[in-house]
Amino acid sequence: MASRCSSSTIASAGAPRVLFVTLGCAKNEVDTDRMRARLLRAGFSAAEDAPDADVAIVNTCSFLASATQESVEVTLELAEASSEGVRSRPIVMCGCVPSRYGDDLPSELPEVSAFVRAEDEDGIVGVVSSVLGLEDVIVAPQDEGVLRTVEGASAFVKISEGCDRFCTFCAIPYIRGRYRSRAAEDVVGEVRSLMEGGVREVVLIGQDTGVWGRDLEGDQTLAGLLRRVARAVRPYGGWIRVLYLQPEGMTDELIATIRDVDEVLPYIDIPIQHCSARVLSSMGRSGSPEELRALFARLRKEIPGMVLRTTGMAGFPGETDEEAAELYDFIQEEEFDYTSVFSYSQEEGTRAAAMGDQVDEGVKLERTQRLVDLTEQLGFSATSSHVGERVRVIVDGVEEGADGPELIGHAWFQAPDSDGAVHLAAGEAAVGDVVEVDLVDSFCYELIGELAGGEA
Ligand code: SF4
């Protein structure tokens, strides 16, 4: 049994309510979910909104300077609401901002009661208990089983932490540390438990998923992990999606696994960042336009009908007009279904930040906008190409549409929270259902669907 105070002890004092605010990427969503699960097991409850909360946890992002700024602004807004409110509410700042700027923060943000680095989030129960003065009442439960509180039919699952690549523009290895693969048994155990709880899609994430297993004993590879996860989702008719595969990670074994294992979606996310060999080398990445072209041609040949997602960066230090045009032409030629475009951001402590040939801000924005315009054109066209198909759709939620409430879901070719959605008339299905849908129309990245008849 977990050693913790009995829930009756907490209940008698009123279960303290925790507000969770998550900024940044899906990896942070998973971390918040794990903290939430730990706190709920310890007897805390989740607050619906700020005025209800006894304590607020802000899980921050520091990938870019703009994300750090947003994290601080959100924290300060909560602090302000707290001081203006009926009662004050302590704020705990977690995740990437404390990991990156830990030692400087207590003096710079006196409004925050405690800072928890990403690597220390397992101790969240002790921290929250302490800021509420309940450390003698609440004892953190020992970890037992899987720590998730997922609602709905789609869940992100982390397979690794950190990154060893040290791309010259990126602060992640300094924030999240060196690459650590999560044990296969842990990943499979979490997936199985999620499936038992009603999840039907697992999205495997990490900073660099292709190298999973390299630091583990034995000859472990992502392809092998996918085959094990596929066995876990098969009895439930589940899907597996993998994000963040670096080009070098696309081994023969992995390509064959994506092609041959039905549960693994032919949805391939390879962030290229750039195609010019000179820019890639300056970014601390390998590759050339020829190598990338050969890789995508091979993927198209071996995995017919696949969907391709990528990421491109505009305005890296030293990028010339010709190199910017080279990236534009490359993306146009490859006709990626989905592309995230970033404008280079000079991140403190990275090697690229110290490069002397920073691109003028106006030029950077112009190049970024050109890429965004192109990728929207390609993305809208890829989306409309699905009109007329009958697909399985996972229903994610309800939203207010132009004609009243509607259901929002996503199909196999749409990664949740990234690639647009399928819209269905409200009442046709419930959140968490997996339904057969006829796609009848599209607008931008969105598709309109009609229920084809019953749950899939
Ligand atoms: S692969 Fe490069 S860009 Fe991605 S997290 Fe690692 S260092 Fe950053």
From TrEMBL:
Organism: Thermophilibacter immobilis
Note on how the cofactor is bound: Binds 2 [4Fe-4S] clusters. One cluster is coordinated with 3 cysteines and an exchangeable S-adenosyl-L-methionine.
Residues given in the record as [4Fe-4S] cluster 2 binding sites: 163, 167, 170
SUPFAM superfamilies: Radical SAM enzymes
GO BP terms: tRNA methylthiolation
Binding of [4Fe-4S] cluster 1, residues: 25, 61, 96
InterPro entries recorded: Elp3/MiaA/NifB-like_rSAM, Methylthiotransferase, Methylthiotransferase_CS, Methylthiotransferase_N, Methylthiotransferase_N_sf, NA-bd_OB-fold, Ribosomal_uS12_MeSTrfase_RimO, rSAM
Gene: rimO
Top-tier EC class: transferase
PROSITE patterns the UniProt entry points to: MTTASE_N, MTTASE_RADICAL, RADICAL_SAM
EC number: 2.8.4.4
Swiss-Prot/TrEMBL catalytic activity: L-aspartate(89)-[ribosomal protein uS12]-hydrogen + (sulfur carrier)-SH + AH2 + 2 S-adenosyl-L-methionine = 3-methylsulfanyl-L-aspartate(89)-[ribosomal protein uS12]-hydrogen + (sulfur carrier)-H + 5'-deoxyadenosine + L-methionine + A + S-adenosyl-L-homocysteine + 2 H(+)
Swiss-Prot/TrEMBL cofactor(s): [4Fe-4S] cluster
Similarity-based family: Belongs to the methylthiotransferase family. RimO subfamily.
Protein name: Ribosomal protein uS12 methylthiotransferase RimO
Described function: Catalyzes the methylthiolation of an aspartic acid residue of ribosomal protein uS12.
Cell location: Cytoplasm
